Structure formats: C-alpha cells, structure tokens
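Quick one: UPF0311 protein CJD35_17215 from Sphingobium xenophagum, structure tokens please.
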Amino acid sequence: MMAAAGAGGISLLAASAGASGAAPAASAGMAHGKARPAPRPEWIYDATVELEKDIPMGKTIRGDRFRVPIIGGTFSGPEMSGRILPGGFDWQLLRRDAYWELSADYFMETTDGVQIHVLNQGLWYSASGDWPATYAVTTPQLEAPDGRYEWLNRYIFTGTVGQGGTAEKPAVQLSIFRLLNP
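--- reply ---
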C-alpha cells in the first residue's frame, strides 16, 4: 500500500480512512460478516520454456542454489503469441523443507516484434522430488512497453508450472492467468 502521496495527492491509506480521518474497522475486509469473493482468473497464455540443465551454485545459508539457463521456447494465447528469447535464467533455491523457490527473469517477443519482460516468482514441491508436483504455482510480473500490450502492466498474474521436457531436453509448461475483480 502507498504510505504517503506527492503534492496534491492522497494516499490509499488516507483514502480508506474516509472523511472522518478514522481508520477503517478491523472487519473492513468483510461485507456483512462474509468474506469478499476471491479474484477471478482469466487465462492469458500457455508457454513452453526450454531450459539447459541446472548448474549447481553451492550450499548457501538459505539452501542449495542452482542457476538454470533459459534457452528459448514459445507462448500462445488469445491476445498474444510469440517466442521466449534465449538469455534468461531461472534462479532456483532448494530449501531445507524440500520446497523449491523459483525466480525466473527473461524476455518474450510477440509475433509482431514487441519484447515483454517477465519476472516470475514461484514455489514448487513434490514429496518425491520429481514430477508431478504437489504444488507448483508462480506469480509472474509482466512489463510491456507502451502500445498494444501495455494492459499487461495493469494486472496481477498467477500461473501453474508443469513438466514440459525430458532429462536430455528440459523444459517447463506454464499456464498464465490474470486475476480480475469478481
């Protein structure tokens, strides 16, 4: 939340206090004793992200760190499609509780030549340590230039991660959704 505002602006916190200046009631997240509805997901695209084999970086204070080069792939959905550009990385951390923290940073290029930056944070877990995962969820942040795809800058996204390749040619399958008000 915004804690302060610039000249002439009002912070989100101050706006929620209302005209009286009083803080909102503790039950403000409840409408007449009922929880507010959850955001509604809308499918945006599926992607196959091609990877090189993981490169162990060593044990750290937080767990075992790996670097996984992103070497290409494709994505397709109703409003955009294109390719995953080589040169990105997925920084992975295997925690002591056997969960993997994922942090991928790469670019996609649409079929009409627009580059979109993707910073995708996620969490992956499987009791066996292999596919299928018990939990595999991401929260990508998409950054698009002004123009046809600038709408990507105005939403929160979530996604799922599935197996998309082989041991010799690793890849992951992503399904990405924007979260809309109910």
